[in-house]
Amino acid sequence: MAELNLKPQLLTFRAWCWAAATISSRTLHIPWDEAGCLCPVGDLFNYAAPGEETFCSEEVDGRLCASSFQATSLLNGDRAHKSNVEVLDAHDLRLTDGAYEEDVAAYCFYARQNYLKGEQVLLCYGTYTNLELLEHYGFLLNENPNDKVFIPLEPEIYSSCSWPKELLYIHQNGKPSFSLLSALRLWTTPPSKRRSLGQLAYSGSPLSTDNEIQVMKWIAKKCNLVLKNLPTSTEEDSLLLSSINEIQDLHSVVELEKAISASRGEIRSFLEANKLQNVASGNNLLLSSKARRSMERLKLAVQWRARYKKILLDCIFNCTETIDSLTCGKYLPFKLA
């Protein structure tokens, strides 16, 4: 910043926050600079209300399933199709709102629907997770089809398959992604049989009942481990949200005094950090816009982590249900020879 000879008012933390928010929320992706670029006129578009977009990460899973047979040729040592797979993936996974087009040296926007004269053209937020929406735009969704959770994976899992890391995740409904299941089925297969079973794994098909049970147990164990290592539980998050809602709904200092005196744990720490732990300063909570904003931010953070845990819990439930079904013999896919 010193080399830029910026004015003193542009060297403050507040100025940095403004610049970071501008880059985070207003810039457009370009291949040669990770910061992106500012695009005159292009940044005037408003965004469609969340929930109205039609493109979600589960659609990506479906398209990957349709193209996965091409990927198996890479596993078998055939590089002839590599460029075709890369082109297909780039086309399928790219959001179609806009992109920088090298042939015309311009950033081009594409209509995702037919617009009538006079209608407002809206952009899509994209396939953002709740954490990304919260970080870049300051909100999250109760039901976000693009939300996902990444669990820790052994390095050998990445080396045993050709799926990119960003496709190995758990969906917002608690179901492992197509790519994650494919990768784990192949990884849990003995190395000597991976080549012969590669096409079956990349097609999305279970390799055997025992293999599928092993995969589901592994995923459930990982999810349990992640939950165990988190600093708070689902029950604690639920109680904290109830406390926040209770305080936000109060309209008198008397009511607030009772809530503050009964507060414990994280909500108590929050009140103390904002100097709101006594009745006199309690007026500030009722009147101060800064205090209300801080409380709302705390609520958003707790809501996010509660949804994060719910995805992990749903995944454990789904895996357990699948294991029970396989154990009862209701589902008997191809058996290993």
Note the topology.
Elements: H1 13-26, E1 28-30, E2 33-37, E3 46-47, H2 57-75, H3 82-93, E4 98-101, E5 106-109, E6 122-123, H4 130-137, E7 148-149, H5 155-159, E8 170-171, H6 178-187, H7 191-202, H8 209-229, H9 234-248, H10 253-261, H11 265-273, H12 279-287, H13 289-327
Parallel strand pairs: 3-6
Antiparallel strand pairs: 1-2, 4-5, 7-8
Helix pairs in contact: 2-3, 2-7, 6-7, 8-13, 9-13, 10-12, 12-13
Low-confidence stretches: 66-95, 332-337
Name the structural class: mainly alpha
Tell me the radius of gyration: 25 Å
Number of strands: 8
Largest sheet: 2 strands, antiparallel
Order of strands across the main sheet? 1-2
Average pLDDT metric: 78
Overall form: globular
Helix content: 40-55%
Topology pattern, helix = H, strand = E = HEEEHHEEEHEHEHHHHHHHH
- Total helical segments: 13
Pfam family, one: Rubis-subs-bind
Domain Rubisco LSMT substrate-binding: 174-312
Protein name: Rubisco LSMT substrate-binding domain-containing protein
GO molecular function: protein-lysine N-methyltransferase activity
Word description of this protein:
One of its GO terms (molecular function) is protein-lysine N-methyltransferase activity. The protein is mostly helical. It is built from 13 helices and eight strands. The strands form four sheets. Strands 1-2 form a two-stranded antiparallel ribbon. Strands 3-6 form a two-stranded parallel ribbon. α6 packs antiparallel against α7 and α8 (209-229) runs antiparallel to α13. The longest helix is centred in the last third of the chain and has 39 residues, at 289-327. Mean pLDDT is 78; it is low at 66-95 and 332-337.
